[in-house]
Amino acid sequence: MDYEAAFLRERKARKNAESVLEKKSRELHFTNLSLTENIDSLHFSVLENKFLAHIGRYGIERPRLRDFLPTIVNDMMRLSEIPFAAYCHFPFDEKQGNFHSYLLQNPDIANGETLEIKSSEVEGLITEVEPLIRKSGRTHLQVLDLVIDNRPIDTMIALPIICLDRLSGIIILFTKELTSKQNQALNVFRTGIKQLAIIMEHRYQEDKLQATYEEISATNAALKQTQKKLMQSEKMATVGQLSAGIAHEINNPMGFIKGNMGALNDYVTDFIRYVETAKTLTEQSLQSSDNEVNNAAKGLNKIWNDVDMPFLIEDSQHLLNESQQGIKRIIDIVGGLKRFSRQSDNKKESCDLNQIIDEALKLAHNELKFKGTVSKEVSPVQPISGNSGELLQVFLNLFVNASHAMNEQGELTIHVSENAGGVSIKVADNGCGIDQKHLDAIFDPFFTTKEVGVGTGLGLSISHGIIEDHQGTIGVTSEPGKGTEFHIWLPYEKVA
Amino acid sequence: MKGAVFTNFQEMIEDEFGMECWEALLEKCDLPSGGIYTSASTYDDQEILSLVGALSEYSNTPVPSLVEAFGRYLYDGLANSLPPSMMTYPDLWSLLEAVDSVIHVEVNKLYPDALTPKIIVTEKHDNGVTLYYQSPRKMCLLAIGLVHKAAESFGTPVTIQHTCCMNEGADHCSLLVEYIE
Ligand code: HEM
């Protein structure tokens, strides 16, 4: 038996088996390799999807970019296995101020947490890179020689976020030796960031559209309000015109009534003189022995007593006086009405302000009579050049407003004096006063605190316009609960 | 150490000293593996050291020369285990450059548990190169044997000067490899 031959055969068999094993092992290795690659690329795709999905979420959930950037930056670090990153945010709304983050550490390295590392070196780099990026608008690669947290760093990649041709932010990645995988990731980042910029752009446009829409709605509402008020003031103007017509109609009959009343007064005086003389005759005739005379006198005396002649005499004079006063008032009021409605004619005339104020008080008498007392402290002033109708309107407006502010114990004080080359008029009431917040808007057109339909909100703005027209000033001070004082100043000589 | 190294060692013993010697060595060393080696497995480094030590006694040859001799023997065994397409180098220098970057890389692919040394060409001269060797096993003599045999396979024998050595406390070995004029 040749054992050696058998042994050599066995040895050969083992070697063959080993080489087959090696071949299999090699195949296994390659299969393994491609599997690992597949897993790697799958892993990459999952992260890539997550990253892009996060970006998509920015469009849907609409967070603020500043709150959102950390998520994106974390995604990017995870996806590219880059150890450190930072970001800047330059908001559209410049009032918000720019933001620079600290250095962030990849949460996969930092035990699942995002660490914030303060590094003045890194901050310096970020400040340096910002102007470069602003200029180029492109990804910026820079070689560094840094050690952060015991990790050597030799590359900085700064990715700009450009939205509407404006640099909205920068994402900065710090790594060592960019691998081809990281390069691949960078391409994904660039696409993602572009997508982000597009979403930002849409959001910006949407917000702008929304703002414009809101503005238009507000304008529309204001227009409707204005229209309503204009209609109201149109009505007022019509009333004004009507009253001017009526005033004219009333004026004529009033003229002859006044004349007639004057004549009637003269006649009545004559009648009374006659009747009183006749009374003396009657008294004497009653003493007469002539029966005929005596009877006639008795008859007259009876009438005297029956009609209560002394009362008639006294009362007729009284009635006449009263009527004449009434007529004078009617004439005054009608005159005021005429002036009030003549507001559009621009004729300047010599105006006696004291007289105008008196007239306005008369016109407002109805409003003021239940609201307490009116006191005037008036010193004589020279006339000014102006439109008396317009000025009347100003004071009338102030008095009516004051009457609305006051209750029964009201006190309206009017103070007229010369001051600084003009006339100063103060109109003070002790009414409810005006809130500070309303005070600022009080001369604005259509501003009113009265209920809809009660005031037009035009009164004080028109007054303001009129005073300005006269080169004067109008102002107001008020204390809620204590009262309001308007002060007007009108110059004697108008500056051309 | 990979089984391939042991099987080659066994073959060398059988070829040079005969099967009785191998049996004697095994008996002497009383190894954990019992001397049953296959190329795919990995065995304790101590086993090869014990075997080499025992052989030194058996053959009255100092360990260093044995290790270098084994390196020479090992080269063919290793080279032949690779697919022929991977061993097509035009000269010794290109082979030496490929050891670390290609050949041992392949080894590690095949045997993820392999622990190959760092062998790098650090300098090129007119007629040679300087090799940098670094390994926890400090088997620079094995490397020298391997390089000699590789040089012979190209028909260009070399001299090798060991200018610094890990076994003498250095952190690496430097081998100056030069053609014989
Ligand atoms: C001139 C060329 C070569 C040199 C100088 C060289 C050098 C070395 C040395 C010195 C070792 C011992 C381990 C150490 O020192 O840490 C080693 C191990 C090894 N070498 Fe090479 N080698 C070369 C070529 C090859 C070739 C062509 C192969 C082919 C497969 C190869 C495969 C291996 C294997 C499998 C090991 C064992 C590794 C372990 O046990 O973990 N070597 N080589």
From TrEMBL, chain A:
* Catalytic activity as recorded in UniProt: ATP + protein L-histidine = ADP + protein N-phospho-L-histidine
Q: Which Pfam families match?
A: HATPase_c
Q: What class of enzyme is it?
A: transferase
Every copy of the Histidine kinase domain together lies at 245-494
Asked if the record carries the keyword Phosphoprotein, the reply is yes
- Signal peptide positions are none
EC number(s) reported in the record: 2.7.13.3
- Superkingdom of origin: Bacteria
CDD domains attached to this UniProt entry: HisKA (cd00082)
Q: Which UniProt keywords apply?
A: Phosphoprotein
Transmembrane helix recorded as keyword: no
Mark the transmembrane ranges.
none
For molecular function, the Gene Ontology terms on record are: phosphorelay sensor kinase activity
Entries under InterPro entries matching the protein: HATPase_C_sf, HATPase_dom, His_kinase_dom, HisK_dim/P_dom, HisK_dim/P_sf, Sig_transdc_His_kin-like_C
* Name of the protein: histidine kinase
From TrEMBL, chain B:
Q: Which GO terms describe its molecular function?
A: heme binding
Taxonomically, which superkingdom?
A: Bacteria
Q: Tell me the InterPro entries matching this sequence.
A: H-NOX_domain_sf, Heme_NO-bd, NO_sig/Golgi_transp_ligand-bd, V4R
The chain positions of domain 4-vinyl reductase 4VR read 118-179
- A Pfam entry, by short name: HNOB
**TM region positions:** none
Stored Gene3D superfamilies: H-NOX domain
This chain belongs to the protein called Heme NO-binding domain-containing protein
